[in-house]
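Reopening this ticket.

The earlier resolution said the output was attached, but the attachment link was broken on my side. Pasting everything inline this time so it's all in one place.
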Amino acid sequence: MTEEGVDLTSCDREPIHILGAVQSFGFLVAVSPDWIVVRASENAPRWLGRPVADMLGEPLSDILDGEAIHIIRGHLQTLRGADAIDRIFDTVLQEGGPAFDIALHLSGADIVIEAEPSTSEHLNAGNLVRGMVGRLQQTTGFDPFCREAVRQMRALTGFDRVMVYRFDSDESGVVIAESVRSNLDPYLGLHYPASDIPKQARALYERNWLRIIADVDGENFAVLPQRDPEGRPLDLSMSTLRTVSPIHLEYLRNMGVAASLSVSILRGGKLWGLFACHHSEPRHISLERRTGAELFGQMFSWILESREREAEVAYEAKSRELHNRLMGAMASGGTSLENITGFLDDIAGIVTCDGIGVWVNGHVTLQGATPTVEEFTGLVRFLNRTAASRAFATNEIGKVHRPGADFTERAAGLLAVPISRAPRDFLVFFRREIARTVTWAGNPDKPVTPGPNGIRLTPRKSFEAWSEVVHGQSAPWTEADLRIAESLRITLLEVILRLTDSAEKERKTAQERQELLIAELNHRVRNILNLIRGIVAQSRSGTDSVEAFAAVVGGRIQALARAHDQITTTNWGPGSLRDLIALEAEAYLGARADRVCLAGVDMLLEPQAFSTLALVVHELMTNSAKYGALSDGHGRVDVRWETDAAGRLVIRWSETDGPPVKPPTRRGFGTTLIERSIPYELQGEAEITYALGGVTGRFVVPAAFVRIAPVTKAPAGLRNAVETERSARLSGTALVVEDNMIIALEAEEILTSLGASAVDMAASVHDALRLIESGKPKFALLDVNLGSETSVPVARRLAALGTPFAFATGYGESFRIPPELGDVPMIKKPYTADSLGKMLAARFS
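Inline output:
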C-alpha cells in the first residue's frame, strides 16, 4: 500500500483467502493492499471466462482491461469513510467483452469490486429521482406523503407490492402505506413482531441502504478462497451482491414472495423504517435502477426528517414561548419552588398532557387526570430509586412500576422532571390510557419451533391477521417532549434565572434568520424543495389555527403550481401575463372573477419572472378577497399594463368601490412578498399604497424578462375542468402500458380522475399480459412503442377478451393499426384529462 493507494498492477505473493457468499447475477473481486489478488465467487467464470482457481493470486491487470483499471482507480479516489460506496455504469472490463455495472467499496483494508452485466438502460437516476421528489413535495400531510412515495417506488422498480414499513418504539413494525397489484391481498395496517427483522439485520440496514434478492430460490455462490492466512473472513456488509440468511429466504417463501428489494429509511442516522418491495416471481432490476431507488429512499428520508422536524420545531417554539413567559413571571415575582403550584395551568401547557402532579418537600399537588395522593406518593418513591438525574419518561407506567397498573384509566404514561437535588422533588406530567386494536400478521406470541438444525429457530409460517386490544399504554413521549422537559428542569434548577438579555438576543437572532430565509426563498425560487420549505416556514406567522395555516400555505403553493403548469406546457418557456392574472382570479375568486378587469396587450414573461409575479398576484388577489374591493358585492379591481420607453413592463393594480381601506397593522410574509419579491429577484420596482378609497399598486418588470405575445388566448384552466366533467366516466380497474415511468404516473392520475377505482401499470408486454391474466381490466391505455417491442400483442389479447382499449402514441399518423384489431381509437401525446375524456366519450360512451 502506497500513500497514494493500492497498486492494482502487480503481485508476487500468495492469495489471501476470503469467506462470503454472493448472488448469481454478478461476480466479486477483492484487492488487498499487501497482496494484489483476485478473490471471486464460484460463478465468476460465467462472466470472466476462466476457472476461479486459475485466477486466484493473479495480478488484476491479467484479469481486467487496463482502461477498466484506470477508471476504477479514478473512482476509488472519491471513496471517503468506512461505508463509502461508488458506482460505475456500462463499463467494459475485458477487451471485446460485454459491458458491466460496477459497485466499489472498502472492506477493512480491502477494496471490493463487484460487477454485474449492464442492461444499458441509461436511466439517468438523478433526473428521474428529481421528478419523483417533486411529486412528493406536492403532497400535504403524512399519509398522502407516504402513499405517494410507495406509488413512485413501485413505478420505478416494477414490483408487485411496495410498502412503507415503519418501526415502532418496541421494534415491532407496521405497514403504514402500500401500493399493490390490484388482485393481491393488502398488507396495509398489519403489524409484524420485532423478531421478524433481527437486530443484526437492522444494523446492516443502517449501514447499507439497499438490498436485493432477485430470486429466493436462485443459486448462491461462495467467495473463494474461504479465509485469509490469519483466518479472517471478508466483511460483505456493504456488498450489493451478498446473499442473505437462509432463514430470511425461507421467511419470504412462507409469505409467497419470490423476489424482494429493501431500501432503508433513516431518521437522524437511525433506522426509521423500510421501503419493502415484493414480487410474486423472480425479478432482477439493474444496478442503475437500484441506484435510483436508493437515491429516492435517501431523499424520502431527508424530506421525512425535514417535515417531522418542522412539526417538532413548531411544537417546541410554542412550548418555549409558554416556558419563557412562565419563567419571566416566576422570576419577576421572586417565586420559589414552594410556590410553583400557583403556575400549574401554565406549566400544563408546556408539554401535551392530561394531568400534572408536583412533589415539593413532601407536599403533593395534583391537577387533571392523575393518580391519587397515595398512589402518587408511591410513584415518587419509585422515581427516587431511578439512577437517572434527567427527565424520565414511559408510556406504560405499569410496566416499570407494578402498582401503576391499578390506575391506568387515569394515568398510563408519565414524564417526570426532577426539580431539586436528592432527595428529589418532581414535576410529573401524565397522559391517559389509549386503548387500541393492533392487527398482527400472525400471532406475535405464538411459540417458535426449533428447526432441523437444532437450536436455530425456523421462521414462522402463518401470516393470517390476528388482532389484540392493547391496554395500559398512553401516547408515546416524543424526543421533543423530552427536550422541552429537560429545558424546564435546567431552568428550575438554576433558581429561575432572569432571561431578559438572552431572550432579547434570541429575538434578534430569530429576526435575522427570518430575513435570511426570505432572501434565500427569493434567490432560489426555481428550486421547488427550498421554496416550499421557505413558504411553510414564513407562513406560520399570523395564522391562529391549523386550518388557517393550511389554507394560507395551500393557496401559495397552488399559485406556484398553476404558474409552473403554464410555463412548462411549452417546455419551460415564457408564460402569458393575461393568462396568469385571469387564471389566478378564476381559481381563487370563482364567480367573483368577472370583477377583475384586465387591459393591455398580452405580454410573455420569462419563467423566473413568471413565478415571481404568480406569488405577487396571488397575494394581491387574496388580500383583495379578504379585506379589499372583492370582499363585498360591489368592488372591482382594474389591472392595466403597458411598456415604457425602456421596454419595461409597468403593471398598475387599482381597487375601487370596495369597503374603506385600513393599512395593515403588522408586516406579514404576504406583504413582504408583494413589496420585495420583484425588486429582489428581478431588480424591478414595487410600490403599494393603502388609500382609503382602495389599494393601488405599481410594479415594474425589467425588459429582459418581457416580450409581446404573438397571440392572445383565453386562460384554459376553468374551461378544461368543466369540459372534463362532461367527458365519459370510467369504473373498475384500468390498465396503463407505458415504458416511461413519469408518463405512466400521469396516466394513472388522469384515469383515476375519470373514475377508475384502481390503475395497474406495466412497462413491458410480459408484465401487461401477466396483469391481464390475473384480473381482466375494464379499460386499457396502451403506449404503441415500448422500447424494443410494441404493445400490439397486448392489444390482441384485450380484443380477444372484449376489453375496450386505446392506443397512445407520439408518432403522429405514422403508426398503422393492424387491420385485425378493427377501429381502435388513437390519442396523441401529450394527452390531458380533457383530451382523454373527450376520446372516451366519443368512442366508448
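Reporter confirms the inline version is readable. The two ends are 74 Å apart (CA to CA). Residues 94 and 244 are 30 Å apart (CA to CA).
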